[in-house]
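Problem 12. The chain below contains 271 residues. Write out its predicted structure in token notation.
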Amino acid sequence: MHKKRHLLIGVLLFFGVFILLYPSTGFAQSGTVNVDTTLNVRAEPSTSSAVIGSLYPGDTVDLEEVAGSWGKITYKGQTGYVSMTYIQTETGALEGKTIAIDAGHGGKDSGAVANGVLEKNVVLPIAQKTEAKLQAQGADVIMTRSADTFIELEDRAAKANAAGADVFVSIHANASSDTSANGTEVYYYPGSSSGQSLASSVQDSLVNQLGSRDRGIKSADFNVLRNTSMPAVLAEIGFVTNAAEAKKLNSSAYQDKAATGLVQGVKEYTE
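Solution.
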């Protein structure tokens, strides 16, 4: 009898310690895959376990349980496990926020053109990826354009103002007569302390995600910054006039990194 009791106590202590060391959530939680290439889905919560599938950057998953550094999911009808190192679980961090995203140029206005790249064609997918990532964080997103259309500058600002947006982010690609010029910079309206704070957060996050040269934040009297009534920034992601950077800007993976940087910057500003 005493042996059975000791055995039962031992088992209970074991599981008690396990739960303390590897706490598990008791509810489903959404997460977003944050990797450069692919994320392995494994049969068991171990790096030595068999790979049963792959997830891609931006994929969303429903985490049934989280224990230690592993998350349990259902993958194509079967149980799988993913490393939580590559899953962002801040879903809802921007709940109740309205974010205006402005893809620069469009339609008859190509923006900067160099190295076979049109500015309007690289900033739109960045804006669309940013929209999806913001929505995954619970934000309401206002897009000034969602297709290759021409929108007047005044109308872009007016749309954000009418929606009562909390933040305005205009996305652009840079150009210079110096083809060696490269890097990322973010602009805010002169004298706007809130715009400056937002610009600082966005700049830091973009540079961190892209690994680009940090050209800093600057003030400028741009139309969309002057006419918006909320904290607003204009982000120059990189230079189309720089051959190496133009190639990156035209890459879906790089566009995704830029979107992640923009979202992270907005989140840090609103926290």
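Discussion. The chain has two domains: 29-89, 98-270. Students who got a different answer should revisit the alignment rule from Section 12.3.
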